[in-house]
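Q: Structure for this?
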Amino acid sequence: MLRQDYNRIDPKRRNVLDYRKKQFADPAYKETEYPHRLNFYATPPTADITLEQFEQWAIDRLRILAELEACSFRNKSPAETASHMKPLLEKYLPLDSNTSSSSKLFAERQKDHYSHFILRLAFASTEDLRRRFSRVETMLFRLRLNEDTLRERNAFVQSINLDCEPVTEEERNEYRDELAATAGFRKNNEDELWFKVDWERVPDLVEGRRVFLKAGKAYVPSREQASMVVAEFTQRLERALELTARALPRLDEDDRLTPILDHLSKNFTTPDASYNSSTSSVPGADISARNVDALSSHFPLCMQHLHRSLRRDSHLKHFGRLQYTLFLKGIGLNLEESLVFWRTSFNKVSDDTFNKEYKYNVRHSYGDVGGDSNRRGGGYSPFSCQKILTEHPPGPGEAHGCPYRHFNLENLNTLLQGVGISDRAVLQGVKQDKDSQKFHMACNRVFEYVHKKEIQKAKEEGIMTSAQLETIVHPNEYFKRSYLLKNLGKVKTEDVKMEG
Amino acid sequence: MPHSVSNSPPNDMEQIMGDASPQNGDSQTTDNDIPMAEAEETPTATDGDEKKDVKLEDLFADVDSDDEFPSSKPAETKPSSSPEAPSSPMDIETDVKASDPEIMRMFYQRLFPWRHLFQWLNHSPTPTNDFGHREFALTLQGDIYLRYMSYPTSDLLRKDILSKMPSRFEIGPVYTTNPRDRKTLRNLSAFKPLSKELCFDIDLTDYDDIRTCCDKANICNKCWQFMTMAIKVIDAALRDDFGFKHIMWVYSGRRGAHAWVCDKKARVMDDQKRRAVAGYLEVIRGGAQSGKKVNVRRPLHPHLSRSLDILAPHFQTDVLESQDPWSTPARAEHLLSLLPDKTLNDSLRKKWDSSPGRASASKWADIDAVAKSGAGGKSLDTRTLLEAKQDVVLEYTYPRLDIEVSKKLNHLLKSPFVVHPGTGRVCVPINTKRLEEFDPLAVPTVQGLLAEIDGWEGGGGGGGAGAEEEGKGENVQDWEKTSLKPYIEAFRGFVLALMKDERDPKVKRERDEDEGMEF
């Protein structure tokens, strides 16, 4: 295939330039104005900035984005995120509204504008980075949109020209009941403005059944417009990132910016990825198929539940098997032992059925079979709490997921008591954590209760620093820590310093 | 498959010529059938003979151009000339399993609607990328699973299926490039799924905690009613709310049904939009331990109130009366756990304990009766109770979707008209206009169908071999001789309507508006 030279000017634009000056052509400087606080980042910046500014602005924005991502990993509600981010935003990336008489208005908006585009360059290179970047940028945008005053928001929304059709009076009368049902409890929706758009434009409203649908059109109340604006923002950003990625090779010649950009994108690591399988195994432990029953006392509640379900039914459904297999893989059960474990656990099925229906999946999880990338990557990595909490909620008859989140309180208490936790204070605490959706906290609370003595001892003797005892956000970390604490005397912890 | 590549240009030509006039489709096939009539003249011969025959064909499959249009019609089996004919269908029906390769071969060769399948996926009579870049996944005998297969034309697909004899095959998405070439691409991210029908999968095993008649893979007409309700609710939502028009429901061969939403708009949806539709339709959430499975906001969303209207009559007859879901104390306890008031529950429990074996319909009526009599405690207001009862109705009737199938663009789903290897039943389309009449246990099986072909006697009175009738018989294809006929005709109608909409956007828009006015 012929590749177009990147330095070649787009044929359509060629005539615009004087052909004699073509080789000296540069992107022309354009005066930028920032009439609104928010920005769709449609036009790239053209003014000169110093290298120090380039780096500093990018780092400041990156700090904000990383923090936002961390908030989402910790499962914070939008309100909590907003209050958590407020001081940070003021420090690193302030953005005042038009009504404030701040003299730095232009400087603030310029920094916001430029830093966004710098990070675009840094994160356009791979698909994975692009996805994460557009996710967190969308979060930032949504956060800012929500704290905007109504007037400014409306002015901004007008300026970006979303095409949506207002719902006529007739239609409103015709669908009065339906519209009222989606408007929620508020009774004064008579005066509310409604817009009619293709439902594809507001997928999140559709998913939550928050709009009325008729023949492919969604009837959106004006206050839900924010979600449309956000969707539009994401969409445009994703498209722009693709284009940036294609233009990136041109940057290779620039030896000033490339190192900075590389550095930036490398620092943007997922907190989630901090769990590393090489540090997870516990030396000295007998990790084998016949020992899983004994080890299961060190498992977090989700895995204990899977284990108990497996023992009770001699069967687990697909996602349960996946979650449990990967966990076992994470604690160091090798493929052969894992196959032995599953074979003996599924004692109601024939060898034939097992080999046909289940064996492949186990092998696939270990990277023994499957596509190239799966085998090279050694299969999947064990699920983090984040993943278990947010992906694939269990359906009828399924035992995976996080008990603190996916069980109702009664069943959760039964399960907790079943594994020997009947302390009233702990159960009460778990209930509060569950009510406020702090599922990690509930799990860690149980961990601390079960290992109270050992933690005390470990702290006193200085075997583990408090950094090593911070909040657990991975089932495998739970196991490892539990095992080490319960075997304080037997295992030399010096060799296995935990990364935390 | 190097030979398929070398062979494809002539095929394309033939295909184009063959398909350019879909109206003449039938006669065309028959014309092409003629040269092959000899090759297949032995449908009633012994198994051994036929096996040999077919294997020879396979060996020379790509050399023998006749094979491109093998007969879908056997040499006429005149009852007078071949008296042993009736005996062979009996053999087939009684002795042979559906997964038997010979049975499958005959089915694929003589009955499977290849042309319609091709047109359905291709959206046009001439081969396009919609078909050529479409992934097929074949499950071969012995559970070998071949993914990323693709075929330029329907005949190549047919030929490959006939040579590999998969026990079933699945349909995946259309990719950016030919799936077979994916490894030749410089960067793998360029190989992406582009479009696929929006699919739904409903399986009766997900109803195990509320159906009392059967469990696991077993079904009967009683619990099939759950499927009837599910199809009604989902179909209504897809048509009225999302505005989709080309929706095909297919019986999955054993215990479930699939929906294929084929509108262009639905096919090009990305994962986020698929997730949105799935979330919109999903009501029953939570695993075995999560207690109350229905948690919906009030006031009820229009989709839910419409669904309740559809489901309420079914709840009375198909759940309360025929399933009797709360007959045992343990099951009744589950009902109580869904009700909001402790005092009410206690009085109900007392009442039911004193009369064991009380029917579920009476128990359901008791709730209101007891509440009205004032045994419900002071805190209980009628609205809370009504809402709880609505939730119970939803939990016992609302469709339980296997949601993962719908969420992902690149999910594979078993093709329509494939034979279920366990039951031998053909995955036939379900007529939603006559949904109540659909009987999963009466769906044609391969064995039965092959027997029907052999037992076919010219459609008419049977005995008379008049010249006119004979002439008519020549134009009759094998599927027309069997009970598969209405299903294939329905499929053809569906495909033609779909192609019409794809072909002529202008007409489509006009019709859209017309339909819009109706609502």
